[in-house]
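Async update (no meeting this week)

Hi team, since we skipped the sync, here's where things stand on the single-chain job. The sequence we agreed to prioritize is pasted below, unchanged from the tracker. I ran it this morning and attached the output directly underneath so nobody has to dig for it. Comments welcome in thread, and please keep replies under the output.
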Amino acid sequence: MNTGMPQPSFPEPPEPRAESGFMPVALIGLLAGVAFLGNMYFIYHGLDIGGKGGSFPPQVYFPHRSYSDVVRANPAAGGVDLDLGKRVYNMACAPCHQPSGMGTPGMFPPLAASEWVTTEGHERIIRIVLNGLSGPIEVAGAQYNNVMVPWRDTLKDEDVAAVLSYVRSEWGNKAPPVPVEAVAKVREATKDKGAPWTADELKQVPEKAE
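Output:
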């Protein structure tokens, strides 16, 4: 109904538009807290996101209590501790054969890509570690003539098996591990051997036990 009175006019609201804004600090903190707690949950329940948990995931590797236990129980590793092998290598072998396994030219032969190291069998290389090696030897097409000291009285069977398995699997080498039992057998069979081996003597030894 038109009363003759002027009708009020209302301005139209502005058109909506997208604008950037700041996320509330409390919300950022909440999200960060949820992410942290979630990560901690997975770490302690067997999953280490990002590899930064640092703790041994017990549910993944149960009943083993350390990574060394897993290595020793792994048939592919021959029941030897490769971490122990690396420690023995750094102590006993690296001063001559170098941490890289490349040896010292003209003095000490390389262990990387060495035909003496990577044979399928391990009868010869066990003898070399136990009694040492003296005289000329050809390795990877190069001649060497020096003396390797014996480790029979210094390293236990477990040490020898571990360091040889480490050497046979490091620097691109791909050879089967050396069981502790094989070292013990060779040690007993060569107990009367006093002098270091020569390359010619070792070539008379079958690569694999018969």
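Quick observations from my side:
Helices lie at 25-44, 58-61, 67-73, 82-97, 123-131, 157-167, 180-189, 199-203.
The two ends are 118 Å apart (CA to CA).
Reply here if anything looks off.
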